[in-house]
Amino acid sequence: MSKLKEYLKTLPRRLGKTAAVVGAAVVLFAVFLLCQGVNPLSVYANMIASTLGTSYGIGQVLIKSTPFILIAVGTCVSAKAGLVNVGGEGQFAMGALFSVTAALFIGDSMPSFFGIVLMMLAGMIGGAFWSGLAGVFKVKANMNETLTTLIMNYIAYQIVSYFVFNQLKDPDSFNWPQTSEISESLQLPRIWGKVTIGIVIALLAAVLIWLMISKSKWGYSLRVIGGNANAALHAGINVQKVQMIAMLISGALAGFAGAIEISGVEERLRQTTGVNYGYLGFLAAWMAWNNPATAIFTAVVIGFLSVAGNVLEISSALPSSAIQILMALVLLAILWKGKEKKSA
Questions:
Q1: 84: helix, coil or strand?
Q2: With b meaning 16 or more CB within 10 Å and e meaning fewer, what string describes 240-254?
Q3: Distance (Å, rounded) from C-alpha 127 to C-alpha 89?
Q4: CB contact at 8 A, 124 and 257
Q5: What is the helix (H) or strand (E) element at residue 191, kind and residue range?
Q6: Residues 202 and 191 sit within 8 Å (Cβ to Cβ)
Q7: CB count, 10 Å around CB of 133?
Q8: Contacts from 4-8 at CB under 8 Å and sequence distance 24+?
């Protein structure tokens, strides 16, 4: 209870720091828009009105935010163990691949609830398997986890491409690289418009992980290692074991996000399923200073910006990818702030 009170007490300060960082990036992006001959106030007003001003827009933000929350929380777990896991992209892809394979195998052979649970478990296993490989490289071969997880992102999507072009390819897709649509019984129930219970699951997972890190003995070991791995080793903590578990949990959450994307949004696997989701989830975690609870808010901000990119294209004649400039500015501001905080 004291941990919760402490967190709630520091929450305004944490959110204030995040808001300041995002605000600085917004101002810089406004300068970019002015250089393109676009009125930034008009663009920002249209972005807010089209996303948060309609029920459809809010629903799209929640749908987009769901995988970002899970990937961000997973990134927070590994970060607490002193690891920089940028492999959410590949872990998401493997989770989507494992889950769609399970879904196509299950079909209508079992009740909806059990089929969905098995599909979610398959996604988590896929993500954990992929992050576990990087974990083994780290704890057994002392390889840099930042580089290995980054490289494995590209390998994961090559594997996805192989399967959607070959074994899992929909025979009725007119040669389009995608799997068949999963059974309707395996699609997540919707709670509002196109919003599924996936957003509720993501929020519960974030809270559960936050409690685990804050309250459990393992969470304490995690925080000690993240603070000083050598001190943790001298204190009798099995650093390699804790870091390995952290990587597995991190990957399982990203894989879970992939399963939810298949079951609740795309309902089939494509080459482009979830592209850039891992990097955006990583950005959300950094914006939250690797706090799983705060990551809920930052992931929603990223979700809002992702949806607003389409509005940007309509209202400014700029490509929707221009929103990536704003996200890059946010990341650079966070890196600068983190360096300033560390040097202080």
A1: coil
A2: eebbbbbbbbbbbbb
A3: 10
A4: no
A5: strand 190-192
A6: no
A7: 19
A8: 7/214, 7/293
| Domain spans, the chain | 69-294
Using an 8 Å Cβ cutoff, are 247 and 138 in contact?
yes
Report the mean per-residue pLDDT for the chain: 90
List Cβ<8 Å contacts ≥24 apart for 133-136. 134/85, 134/87, 134/247, 134/251, 135/243, 135/244, 135/247, 135/248, 136/244
- How far apart CA 303 and CA 309 sit, in angstroms, is 10
- pLDDT higher than threshold 60 for residue 281: yes
**Terminus-to-terminus CA distance in the chain, angstroms?**
31
Q: What are the tens digits of pLDDT across the range 152-170?
A: 999 999 999 999 999 999 9
| Six token digits for residue 131 | 């992050």
Helix (H, G, I), strand (E, B) or coil at 81: coil
**Residue 179, helix vs strand vs coil:** strand
C-alpha to C-alpha distance for 344 and 327, rounded to whole angstroms: 26
Could you please report the per-residue DSSP string of 277-320? HHHHHHHHHHHTTT-HHHHHHHHHHHHHHHHHHHHHHHHHSS-G
> Residue 206 carries which side chain, given as an amino acid letter?
A
Query: How far is residue 123's CA from residue 14's CA, in Å, rounded to a whole number?
Result: 32
Mean pLDDT of 132-154: 96
Q: Which of 286, 338, 264 is nearest to 64 (CA)?
A: 264
pTM attached to this predicted model: 0.90
| Residue 269 to residue 248: CA distance in whole angstroms | 23
Neighbours of 109 (CB within 10 A): 10
SS3 of 235, please? coil
Residue 156: which residues within 8 A CB-CB, separation 6 or more? 89, 90, 91, 93, 94, 130
- DSSP letter for 196, please: E
Biggest alpha carbon–alpha carbon distance for the chain: 61
* Residue 90 burial (CB count, 10 A): 30
Of 9-13, 140-144, 222-226, the least confident:
9-13
